Amino acid sequence: MKKYTDLQELDAAVLRAFIDRIEVSHVNKKSRTREITIVYNFIGAFDFTRAIENARNTSKKEQRTA
To answer: Can you say whether residue 44 is alpha, beta or left, with left for phi > 0 and alpha for psi between -120 and 50 degrees?
Structure first.
Protein backbone atom coordinates (compact mmCIF):
# COMPACT_ATOMS: atom_id res chain seq x y z
CA MET A 1 0.00 0.00 0.00
CA LYS A 2 3.00 2.30 0.31
CA LYS A 3 2.98 2.76 -3.46
CA TYR A 4 -0.37 4.57 -3.08
CA THR A 5 0.84 7.31 -0.72
CA ASP A 6 1.29 9.84 -3.54
CA LEU A 7 -1.90 8.99 -5.41
CA GLN A 8 -2.76 11.37 -8.23
CA GLU A 9 -5.74 9.52 -9.69
CA LEU A 10 -8.16 6.89 -8.39
CA ASP A 11 -8.69 4.16 -10.95
CA ALA A 12 -10.17 0.66 -10.92
CA ALA A 13 -6.85 -1.08 -10.14
CA VAL A 14 -6.26 1.10 -7.07
CA LEU A 15 -9.83 0.61 -5.89
CA ARG A 16 -9.54 -3.18 -6.19
CA ALA A 17 -6.39 -3.11 -4.07
CA PHE A 18 -8.29 -1.48 -1.19
CA ILE A 19 -11.43 -3.65 -1.30
CA ASP A 20 -11.39 -6.74 0.91
CA ARG A 21 -14.84 -8.07 0.00
CA ILE A 22 -18.33 -7.07 -1.13
CA GLU A 23 -21.30 -8.40 0.82
CA VAL A 24 -24.74 -8.57 -0.82
CA SER A 25 -27.84 -9.12 1.34
CA HIS A 26 -30.92 -11.15 0.51
CA VAL A 27 -33.58 -9.52 -1.64
CA ASN A 28 -36.08 -7.37 0.23
CA LYS A 29 -39.30 -8.85 -1.17
CA LYS A 30 -41.30 -5.70 -0.60
CA SER A 31 -39.01 -3.23 -2.39
CA ARG A 32 -37.09 -5.82 -4.46
CA THR A 33 -33.79 -4.27 -3.42
CA ARG A 34 -30.59 -5.56 -1.85
CA GLU A 35 -28.20 -3.91 0.54
CA ILE A 36 -24.56 -3.91 -0.57
CA THR A 37 -21.72 -3.46 1.90
CA ILE A 38 -18.18 -2.86 0.70
CA VAL A 39 -15.56 -3.93 3.24
CA TYR A 40 -12.21 -2.22 2.76
CA ASN A 41 -8.78 -3.45 3.80
CA PHE A 42 -7.48 -1.77 6.96
CA ILE A 43 -10.71 0.14 7.77
CA GLY A 44 -13.54 -2.39 7.43
CA ALA A 45 -17.01 -1.40 6.26
CA PHE A 46 -17.37 2.34 5.74
CA ASP A 47 -20.67 4.13 6.32
CA PHE A 48 -20.78 6.62 3.45
CA THR A 49 -24.20 7.94 4.44
CA ARG A 50 -22.97 8.89 7.91
CA ALA A 51 -19.75 10.37 6.53
CA ILE A 52 -21.67 12.59 4.10
CA GLU A 53 -24.00 13.68 6.91
CA ASN A 54 -21.04 14.53 9.16
CA ALA A 55 -19.38 16.51 6.38
CA ARG A 56 -22.57 18.51 5.79
CA ASN A 57 -22.95 19.22 9.51
CA THR A 58 -19.33 20.33 9.76
CA SER A 59 -19.77 22.59 6.75
CA LYS A 60 -22.87 24.19 8.27
CA LYS A 61 -21.06 24.80 11.57
CA GLU A 62 -18.14 26.41 9.73
CA GLN A 63 -20.53 28.69 7.83
CA ARG A 64 -22.20 29.83 11.06
CA THR A 65 -18.88 30.65 12.75
CA ALA A 66 -17.43 32.46 9.72
So the answer is: left
Distance CA 48, CA 57 (A): 14
Model pTM score: 0.55
Instruction: Encode pLDDT of 13-50 as tens digits.
Output: 888 888 999 999 999 899 999 988 889 888 888 888 88
Check: CB of residue 35 under 8 Å from CB of residue 25: yes
At residue 42's C-alpha, the angle toward residues 8 and 40, to 5°, is: 75
